[in-house]
Model the fold of this input.
Amino acid sequence: MSPPLVEHNYMGPSGALSTEASSPDLRQTELRLGLPGSESPERKQLTLELLPPSAKGKRGFSELKKDGGPSGDNLGSQGKEDKANKGKLEEKKPTGAAPAAKAQVVGWPPIRSYRKNTMAITPSKNKEDAAEAKQGASCLYVKVSMDGAPYLRKVDLQTYKNYRDLSTALEKMFSGFTSGGSAHVGPTDLINGSKFVLTYEDKDGDWMLVGDVPWEMFAESCRRLRIMKGSDAIGLAPRGEKSKIRN
Amino acid sequence: MKVQSAMFYFPEEVIEHIFSFLTHHPDRNTVSTVCKAWYKIERLSRCEVFVGNCYAIRPDRAAARFPGLRSLTLKGKPHFADFDLVPPDWGGLAGPWIEAMARSCPNLEELRMKRMVVSDESLELLVHAFPNFKALVLVSCEGFSTDGLAAVARSCKSLRELDLQENEIEDRGPRWLNSFPDMCTSLVSLNFACLKGEVNLKSLERLVCRSPNLKCLRLNRAVPVETLAKIMNQCPNLEDLGTGSLLADQFSEAYVSLISALQKCKKLRSLSGFWDASPLCLLAVYPICANLTGLNLSYAPTVQGQDFINLIQHCVKLLRLWVLDSVGDKGLAVVASACKELQELRVFPSDLFAAGPATVTEEGLVAISTGCPKLNSLLYFCHSMTNSALITVSKNCPNFTRFRLCILEPRKPDPATNEPLDEGFGAVVKTCKNLRRFSISGLLTDQVFYYIGKYAKALEMLSIAFAGDTDQGMTYVLNGCKNLRKLEIRDCPFGDGALLADVTKYETMRSLWMSSCDISLRGCKALATKMPSLNVEIINEWEAEMEENLNNGVAEVISNNNNKHINNGNDERKVEKLYVYRTVGGPRTDAPDFVWTL
Done:
């Protein structure tokens, strides 16, 4: 197994993680390049209990999950399907009859994603309410690109609760794209021998390193993600620095 | 025979002149098949081409055939891509089409695309390659940014129409509005409602000032009431308006000027937007309601209850109404009593998680059908429906051409009788002889398909989800619906038997989509073998398989090395997603690694 990649340790003074600043926590933002699925739960089949017994097929119905609340939408059922997320997030859960926790089906009800995304943030334009509204928002899609990968992916930030979930998902998503697809990749095998770091573009258009700010703040301000080669990432300002410059 | 040889004595110009009366493109397609001479005359004089599936023909072949082309309509991804059933990067690229047109069709003036991926570079090419380019309509497209829009604005000298409907546009800032030429523009229609970001308000006002021909203007949410009022004062001839944010204080200057501006717009017939609409701003709209023919409140959850009723009761000439289900059965009852001319109704769900109370039910639909007998197009999301309601609705409104009913909970029976909804939907197909588009939901057995096959002779597009019992269901449809063009099925127990029941049928159709059904790789391969004129594409993410191969260092995820997966012997594997379409273009050359053409 390849040793884990280490995220650059830019822990600025305003980083809220600084109180917990210790190396193990940085693993939340590490990109690992192990075998696909090496850390994911086993793929299980889901069945919808509402089905009549005549339902046939190995996967008679699309993956279902129990919705813990308006914002929980781990399968990206309100957005583009995502290979890695499916593998990671399939779980066998009983489908309760309770209306508050109804199972959701991918792509159902049949409403255009544009409409779903728009309605999710419609309740209030007011900034104070916006955070609240986003709690109930169904999805928050950002594009993820990786230097050298042939195409982009999209992830729904609302489906993750913390940096670790996000980075695990991204690992799976992009694990096939490094040095010709070989699964056994260590830091030295990568192109130019450089490591990868995870960066994001925030609301102001600045590129920041992922991991400095509390997850909620990150999720709210992140507009897109980029998995950059470590050599390119030097010079990115940590959040603390940026706010200093502002003031 | 004699008549035909007589036609040969007509000079080409005469035949061409005769053809010019054929505007319906299927008719033109038909005359082009009569003989070589007609084919040649037809193709050289053809101005408009509609390509319902961009992979049905190679772009350069289409471009070469119609060098005089002025208007092109293209559709890319399958319909279910709207509901995220198609992975990103599936295809539907506009680039090859624009490049082919650039090489062969210099007269192109209009391009309409739906569900396609368009890059900024393609937009640049578009406006530079076609000096007469006038109209760009993009619906549910993606892949471009406001930089691409800037290129269009900047370089397209005679742009009349820029219509962006529900696209995913990357926002790179509001500068694109500045890119329109400084002198008067020829803009007639500008719709940027789907842009999510900020807009430079001053630029917008100036643009409107120098666009005297503007008839249709749809703003995005970032445009406040103040700007809206200013704009409307500039365009009293506006016919179609999409508002920005309709939040204003009662005593604000903005509100007052909005009222007076709206009153001047005597030609306003269609309204949409209503973002964050406050009841107060709705009051300002009342004076123009009497002339409205189109009203879209489907992005305005704040317009409900009494506010909605107060508004809609004035809209006596309404033909087209889009609302959210938060208006309730009560609101729909008022629509039924006020909007006697109504032809199209769409009711969208406001609460996607079904956690709230039911807001529209079968009662609302029955009320509408009773009050609005001219209704011919329906899209209705509800929590429940009964057979008797559907039977009543079809009796009241026999003119449906489009009928789409979505009961939010899959497989839900008639709550009054606990029976399937076969009879209700059956009544719709029996009564509505002109039904062209049909979407069904709720608990349904093979019986509903029997009805559809038997009665829905005009049906062109059918969407099915969570329905049916056996292969027979799908077979009824394939055998019975003579005019079927598009069939899309998800989560139904139809297997290889149904898929292969009538393979030649698919050549008469544009496409077939089946996902989460019971078909196997063996069945799909059989289809591909029997019908070489079809592209049989499967979308699969057989991850476990890929993992295994990666362990052996055998497969490369990136490469399009499908054979290893397809031919490794296990043909009994279920196919998750199947997309079959007729084509003269052969297998796709741009298929990503998860799309396997058999």
Observations:
- The CA atoms of residues 84 and 220 of chain A lie 22 Å apart.
- The helical segments of chain A are 23-26, 83-89, 113-120, 127-135, 163-174, 215-221, 230-233, 239-246.
- Chain A is about 25% helix and 15% strand.
